[in-house]
Write a structure and sequence with these properties.
alpha+beta, Aminopeptidase, Alpha-Beta Plaits, 2 domains, six-stranded mixed sheet, four-stranded antiparallel sheet, 31% helix, disordered C terminus
Amino acid sequence: MMSRQAAIQRAAAEFDSGSFQQVLRQRIARPTESQNPARSAELLAYLTEDLEPALKAMGFACRLIEHPKAKAPFLFAERLESPDLPTVLGYGHGDVIRGLESEWREGLSPWTLTELEGRWYGRGIADNKGQHSVNLQAMACVLAERGCLGFNAKFIIEMGEETGSPGLQAVCAEYAELLKADLLVASDGPRLRADRPTLFLGSRGCINFDLSIESRSGAHHSGNWGGLISNPGIQLAHAIASLVTDHGEIKVPEWKPKSLPDSVRRVLADCEVDGGANGPQIEPEWGQPGLSPAERVFGWCSFEVLAFKTGNPDNPVNAIPPRAKATCQLRFVVGIDSSDILSALRRHLDSHGFGYVQITAARDEIFKATRIDPDDAWVTWAANSLQLTTQKKPAILPNLGGSLPNDIFIDVLGLKTIWVPHSYPGCSQHAPNEHLPPELLKEALQVMTGLYWDLGAGNTPHHTAHNTPLAN
């Protein structure tokens, strides 16, 4: 007799057989670097040769959607079983950050899935090929066990998330009817800890910008001119110091939320931030005072200087440099007016005597801050599903500490959004030696099989009679 537990056991058996690893090996082998123009053919091939056959084998109808801003088409897939059933939209991205081949440890390559010392290594295993591959495989396990999903499924896969998802918002607006659904269920980012199943309900927003000072056309001897002409490196350091204290507390009022909502504080109360053995040690005095580490990263804003250059750091000379530049970033939460971030920065710098500092946005599109209410019925339903599968209380994060194009799904498509991450904080995402523990991937496959099974069991918030408890 078909059952939830049988579907989960099927998922575990397929993982143990090595079949999932082989699928993942093929997908990681494709170097889909969206920042590298030479990889454009690989971006398209990932959609048409790697994902489309897998989706069609599950009864999905597939089509490519073009957009002039996008580096590759968007892959849209749908399997419609009944208009009376809930419809779930899935999302993923097949592009990866640059491979950085020369920087990986000996014996590893970003384009070869390698098992070493209890870990699986490869570019994209955490971000995001491994994560959407888990979801597709879990859906296949439900189909194999039940014979149908029991819900309508749609997917949109992009190949430009690592460059800001160009074109995604416009495509979602133009094809809103095609993408219409009751809920987004997707996977990206890390769990709170490797061993704790996690839900997050949105993402912090992100804006990158450059601060620069151009004092004069060339450098001048520091012995002849020191004390007579301004040093832009010193000036820019003072300008940055006006934005943030020496322990990381933001000083621009418009860059800080007015308060931390009670529902956010409540769900974060049992969330302990832990990067694992490879993660850095949390510095308790850094950031906004009076907040727990979880509240600082998931409930508040953070300002970072990503790079700072003046003169020639690799070959300094005895000359006052003519210019200085810093690349900066603000991660922000719901409650911050994203359209006023750079205007507020301009007002702040001007009021502190730094009118000569130039501000340049790093790119046109930014990720906006989003979160759905932690008390939403879909959140409770999803948390119950994860707990039933794993017998562990899942962490519920109001939003990811990083950023995703989640605002498109909430603001453009009007969806509730549930993210179930399949990575962990120490995975070396975006760095050399990106990896995941296989036991995390196996549990993730079981978690998603259970979640998709429950979506088709007739007891979701989509149904009027949804108080039937989840059952094995």
